[in-house]
Amino acid sequence: MTIPNPVQARKRARLRALQALYQHEFNPQSSRAVIDQFLATQDMEKTDVEYFSCLVKKIISSSAQYDDLLQPYLDIPLQKLDATERCILRIACYEFSEHLEIPFRIIINEAVSLAKKFGATDGHKYVNGVLDKAAKVLRPHE
Residue 4 — very low, low, confident or very high, per pLDDT cuts 50/70/90? Predict the structure, then answer.
């Protein structure tokens, strides 16, 4: 058995969390139910499952808090954003707030990468702009 690369395992955790949070947007249920369903039905072998679970739990339970942190950097209400971009921004905001060991540039890069892959056309540009503004305030020490 090979040990997964920790960077790639976190990247996969973010991807799976995005999918789980997107699903939650349209089918709200407990974070435990979302996590259990993903663990049972998705290939989580090379995923940092602990980080995935933490992302889903914290973002579902504290989405209003992250939305409030993000709103000053948006030009429209967060609820009017595409669901994919909204979930990506919440993941990044959670990481800005709770994972100070992750440099903000990595957080932004990961969010933009997810937006390019799953978001609307040019959604990645919007995500990048919002997070760049937010990082200057939420991570001023960097």
Answer: low
Task: Spell out the long-range contacts of 88-91 with Cβ–Cβ below 8 A and sequence spacing 24 or more.
Answer: 88/18, 88/114, 88/115, 88/118, 88/119, 88/127, 89/127, 89/130, 89/131, 90/21, 90/59, 90/63, 90/66, 91/14, 91/17, 91/18, 91/21, 91/55, 91/59
| Helices and strands: H and E segment counts in the chain | 6, 0
For residue 33, give the 3-state DSSP assignment: helix
**pLDDT attached to residue 1:** 41
Q: What is the CATH number of domain 6-137?
A: 1.10.940.10
Mean pLDDT of 82-88: 94
Among 16-25, 35-44, 125-134, the minimum mean pLDDT is found in 35-44
Q: Where do the structural domains in the chain lie, given as residue ranges?
A: 6-137
Q: 12 with 46: CB under 8 angstroms?
A: yes
